[in-house]
Structures are given as structure tokens and as C-alpha cells.
Design goal:
Blueprint lengths: L6 H6 L2 E4 L5 E5 L14 H20 L6 E11 L8 E10 L3 E9 L8 E10 L4
Antiparallel strand pairs: 1-2, 2-4, 3-6, 4-5, 5-6
Length: 131
């Protein structure tokens, strides 16, 4: 299933990929648009990447027949090491998907998935009342 990116994700140059296990992975190529301090990726760009992969993964899990309005409750990003001038990848895991709440964990890495540069815990409300 091809992910429909938000205008923000399109502007940032995010690219959809699939891991060897078939899971959605979003790549963020390094560019001037994501630069923070010299030589490093801006924390806001990392947070945007983590949110994008979380919502895209949730959208895939919900499927075409169930598209509730997704309302963010909170996003907590943890920065673990400086992301340097190279492509950054992210994937998400849905920890809980209920009728009204979803809890998602997203991680971002560069050259080694076992050495994440950032992670996020994202909690959202699912508004299924829109008809």
C-alpha cells in the first residue's frame, strides 16, 4: 500500500520504503532543509519524521474501511545521539490499538537500527463518530 504523505512530509523529502520484513520505513535524506547545528539534523525534523511514520503505520493498521479522525494526545520525543549528515530512517510499532485510543512507539536511526538517534511515544485519540 502506497503511503499518502502530508504536505509537510512531501516538503521534507520523505521517502517510503519497506524493510525486509515488509514493515513501513520512512527515509529522510539529509539536506539543507533538515540541518540543525553544523553537521547535524535538526531535532524538529527528527520529531516530524517520527510522527509521520507513526501516523502512516497507524493508517495502514486501520485499513481502508476504518479511517477515524486521529487526534494527537501527546508526543514525547527522546533524543539519544546526534543525527549526522546522512539519511535517517524511521519505523513505528503500534503498542495498543483500541476503539478510542492508540499508543505508538517510533524509532529513528541512521546506519544501524540498533543505535537509534531518537524515539517517540505517541498517544492518539481515534474519533470514529464522523460518518
Amino acid at each position: 500500500m502506497k503511503t499518502s504523505f502530508s504536505p509537510y512530509a512531501q516538503t521534507m523529502g520523505f521517502e517510503e520504503q519497506r524493510g525486509t520484513d515488509g514493515r513501513l520505513v520512512i527515509a529522510m535524506p539529509y539536506s539543507d532543509g533538515v540541518r540543525g547545528r553544523p553537521g547535524f539534523v535538526h531535532g524538529g525534523a527528527l520529531a516530524g519524521l517520527l510522527e509521520t511514520v507513526a501516523y502512516a503505520t497507524l493508517s495502514e493498521a486501520l485499513g481502508e474501511d476504518d479511517r477515524p479522525l486521529i487526534k494527537p494526545v501527546n508526543v514525547t520525543a527522546t533524543y539519544m545521539r546526534g543525527a549526522v549528515e546522512m539519511t535517517t530512517y524511521a519505523r513505528a510499532t503500534i503498542e495498543r490499538l483500541g476503539k478510542r485510543i492508540a499508543n505508538i512507539e517510533a524509532i529513528a536511526w541512521q546506519d544501524d537500527i540498533n543505535k537509534p538517534v531518537a524515539m517517540a511515544q505517541i498517544n492518539v485519540m481515534l474519533d470514529r463518530s464522523r460518518g
